[in-house]
Amino acid sequence: MHNLIRHIVKALTTLCLLLINIPIYPISYSFRSISETDGLSDLMVSSFYKDSLGYIWIGTASSVERFDGVHLKHYPILGNNEKLKWVNVITETTGNRIWIGNDMGLWTVHKETEKLEPFSPETINCGVRALLPTRDGGLYIGSEKGLFIYRNNQLERLAVSSDILSAENFIVALNLDENGALWILTKGGLHSMNISNRKITSYPYKQGFSYRNMTRIGKKLYLGTMDHGLLCFDISTGEFKENIIDLGCNVIMSLSSDEKNLLYIGTDGNGVHFVSANNMKIVRSFCYESGNKQAIRSNSVYALLVDREGVIWIGFYQLGLDYTLYQSGLFSTYAYLPYFDSKEMPVRAIAVSKDEKLIGSRNGLFYIDEKKQRFKSFKVPELRSNMILCIYAFEGKYYIGTYGGGIYILNPSTLTLSDFETADLKSTPFLKGHVFCIKSDDEGSLWMATSMGLYCYRDGKQIRHYTTENSKLPGENVYDICFDSTRKGWICTENGLCIWDPSTNSLKSDMFPEGFIHKDKIRTVYEDSNHELYFLPDKGAIFISDLSMNHFRRMQSGTPLDGKDAMFIIEDHEGWLWIGTNLGLYRYDKKGNFIPYNFVDGLPSSIFITCFPVIDEEGTMWFGNSKGMIYLTSEQNGRKAKWHYPVAITDVLVNGKQSVYAKMSRENNVYKIKLEADQRNLTIRFSGFTYSEPAYMSYKCKMEGIDSDWQLLSGQSEITYYDLLSGK
Fold first, then answer.
1. Tell me: the pLDDT tens digits for 361-415?
2. Which of 9, 281, 482, 567 would suit a FRET pair with 302, their CA atoms being 20 to 30 Å apart?
3. What is the CA radius of gyration of the chain?
């Protein structure tokens, strides 16, 4: 047998595609570009369509491309006249049947051969500019020779004008309203057809307008032209209005809407504009700006789509396309506009109370009280140093530790700073030294980890100062002090650990068992609800111990934390640990299950710096990130609602190449691939259709009969099996 049913690829799930909806228009966007280096065969992008499965279909000047978020699949248009291959429109009807209208006619994607084939070329022997699915599964086809209606496998033609050569029969756009009127925009003007009796009504306007596209919001039609910008037609009154808005360019190449208030307009010369139809004002623009990497790459926009998930797709003249990277909005970056925005700010320390927020960065200190609408920033020269290392609330005031500027006390009532009260500032690090951590114990003493040892104050007076000379302190640079549930204090220094023993009021360094981590540089120590201690070393795996140090271990290898440096750890109300690293944020159930969070979830950066998180009274979690202060509300804590599209196998390569013999079928999410006997190397591509940065995506996959366990793929969306044996 030459053909064998080889494999059934059955279970394919994702780790990180469980996302939630977000408002369509966030404060900022990040764009990703697709061009020839990504496999785009033609850089003249003329149309977009997002189908029901989640694929983006891209029309170009010579082809159709299908994009799954990672890979492009090429659908060439056959024909000798390259000028007529230009794709005008793409749509879909029942059963995920894809239709393409270009200057040659109407095309459809053949389900079995996965190729474009012309549809009724003998009848539709002209350019197709508009396609509109009907409510009963049919299709309205706007062509250069009138209107075609395809329904129940029957095709009929209707002429707008009896003169076959009239501009009224050159249809450029279609729209169906809720009252049963089909609106037809032609080169000659605007018409409507009653779909019940096929009666056509014309609405004449000035001559000389070159109409291009049309969209509708309620009782108003918006008409895009190639020379007079945007027009509005009021269906109720039958009146036209022109010059309704200045877009900086009168060439409207793309026009669509959210059908509620917003118009999406792409121009050939001045980029993209979102316009409020209520007041005819531009609410958002995307234009090319020299030197701005966040801007779009050209103002010559030929195609524009805002899809149902809010991703913006922009097609350019000879430059390919840009699209906005999807973010679920699970995490948000904190801002108190117009006074403060933590975006792009490296946040090093945070303090959050019921009404107040203090944010310490490498660029100063920021105080926000949203309830009383108070804001103030503190920077050099008011501060001796802009780098804030720690913030600690104590007895109604905030103690601020800096790098190179000592300690300040902030009075929230007066919003004034003062130096820490001590007899001799010059002989301490509190004026010009580094203060890494400030904590209080259960007796009300205030401890300060500094570049000149460990200090303890009570009632404003120094009662202890430990150094390497007068105590067991391993190093002068003390980075953290953590009091556990037995009142012991774990002291983290540049040269290792020691313990503050409250029973003897002394530091001890000789009570660590062999094999412990006490000689390493430790960032911090954290005790969870099970009274296990987590030690975060400067390098290497997290170390875990019980309070008595009788049982200890390194965190197991083979986890997503391998090769990453842990910056902080905190436990949420459900008993999971949140671990921030220099390359990602993870939620850990302490049993081996990790949930990764990254750009897709709303994190502005995967890089976390040493900043201890805060959980406020309402259960919101606050984190310091290298690009802002981010937060996660209690309603979303640890959860990822299901994504809209099931993960799908999108393509199969045999021996590294596309194969005309490999046939893939799908039934109830079970994939069957039939191969030739000598085709033993199989590459399976898949997608979750999130349209975010591919490097951030993670999947688990398993082929029954081949894999003994699930395989974790990070930053990959394909898997290859070599030298497969015959079988199912």
1. 999 999 999 999 999 999 999 999 999 999 999 999 999 999 999 999 999 999 9
2. 281
3. 32
pLDDT greater than 50 at residue 56: yes
CA dist., res. 518 & res. 535, Å (int): 10
Residue 23 pLDDT level (bands cut at 50, 70, 90) = very low
Confidence (pLDDT) at 647: 86
Task: For 39-133, list the strands marked E by DSSP.
Answer: 45-50, 56-60, 63-67, 72-76, 87-93, 97-102, 105-109, 116-118, 128-133
| End-to-end C-alpha distance for the chain, whole angstroms | 14
Q: How far apart are CA 393 and CA 357, in angstroms?
A: 11
User: Which amino acid, 302?
Assistant: Y
Q: Is the pLDDT of residue 18 over 90?
A: no
Q: Which two tokens stand for residue 77?
A: 């248009």
Residue 121, number of CB atoms within 10 A of its CB: 12
Helix (H), strand (E), coil (C) string for 529-578: CCCEEEEEECCCCCEEEECCCCCEEECCCCCCCCCCCEEEEEECCCCCEE
Mean pLDDT of 117-123: 96
Q: What percent of the chain has pLDDT over 70?
A: 92
Q: What integer best gives the mean pLDDT of the chain?
A: 90
3 state DSSP class of 233: strand
Tokens of 258: 């959210």
Residue 182 belongs to what H/E stretch? Answer: strand 181-186
Give 251-315 as a DSSP string.
Answer: -EEEEEE-SSSEEEEEEBSS-EEEEETTTTEEEEEE---TT-TTS-S-SBEEEEEE-TTS-EEEE
Long-range contacts of residues 157-166, Cβ cutoff 8 Å, at least 24 apart: 157/123, 158/193, 158/198, 160/184, 160/186, 160/191, 160/200, 161/188
Number of other CB atoms surrounding residue 243 within 10 Å: 11
SS3 content of the chain, % helix, strand, coil (to 5): 5, 45, 50
State how far the Cα of 640 lies from the Cα of 16, in Å rounded to an integer: 8
Beta bridge partners of 182: 176, 193
How far apart, in Å, are the Cα atoms of 236 and each of 189, 218, 276, 295, 320?
Answer: 18, 10, 20, 40, 40
Residue appearing with tokens 């640990």 = 577
Q: What are the strands of the beta sheet with 416-419, ordered from one edge? A: 388-394, 397-402, 407-411, 416-419
Choice between 701 and 173, residue whose per-residue pLDDT is larger: 173
How many residues are recorded in the chain?
728
**Alpha helices, DSSP H, located in 579-724:** none
Contact 576, 613 (CB under 8 A): no
Q: Which residue has the higher pLDDT, 700 or 506?
A: 506
Closest of 723, 699, 705, 677 to residue 2, by C-alpha: 677
